[in-house]
Amino acid sequence: MEPVRFLEGKQVYLRPIELADTDWYFAGLFDRNTRKLTGTQKHFSREQIVSYIEGKAQDSSSVLLLIVACDDDRPIGDIALQDIDRINRNANIRIAINSDNQQGKGYGTEALRLMLDYGFGILNLHRIELNVFSYNERAIHVYEKVGFKREGIQREALFYNHRYHDSILMSILEDEYRSLEKK
């Protein structure tokens, strides 16, 4: 069966996560660099991942999609709009590319643009925010390139690897995104 391509770009497409993706998702949670970049501190069992995937399928306040390479249909990461607030028209976005050798190729940038287009153009959101840790300079660069603006710093919000790290709050508004689309 041909994979579902929910949102499609030139290099990647986004598709719903399925129970068949459990082992891939589970393994990605234990990639050392991905854990650091996302600030993941907890360990998870395979059974917890199954429950998480099943729960996301029923959760109307989030959209969890896998980032898949167009050339070989291989998952390389995931992206989610979460805490969707339909009254105030805002949400949080998160993204992870699970392998160092898949980073720096524009996959994350394209996936972000696909999800922002969906959030603003289909879900009718007004504001999308994210948090990024101060040591993740590559991600900060990508977010600013896509149009996110820094709003503030949550000082020493993450304790990771024996040290405290700042969390940077960034957001993009609907009109800012639309003005970037025209360029």
Note the topology.
Layout: E1 7-8, E2 12-16, H1 22-28, H2 32-38, H3 46-58, E3 63-69, E4 75-85, E5 90-97, H4 107-121, E6 127-133, H5 137-146, E7 149-160, E8 163-173, H6 174-181
Helix pairs in contact: 1-3, 4-5
The biggest sheet amounts to: 8 strands, mixed
Strand order of the largest sheet: 1-2-3-4-5-6-8-7
The string of secondary-structure elements, in order, is: EEHHHEEEHEHEEH
What's the N-to-C terminus distance? 38 Å
- Principal-axes shape call: globular
CATH homologous superfamily grouping: Gcn5-related N-acetyltransferase (GNAT)
Overall average residue pLDDT: 91
CATH class: Alpha Beta
Write a structural description.
This protein has helices spanning about 20-30, 30-40, 45-60, 105-120, 135-145, 175-180, and strands at about 5-10, 10-15, 65-70, 75-85, 90-95, 125-135, 150-160, 165-175. The protein is of the alpha+beta class and about 180 residues long. It has one domain (about 5-180): Aminopeptidase (3-Layer(aba) Sandwich).
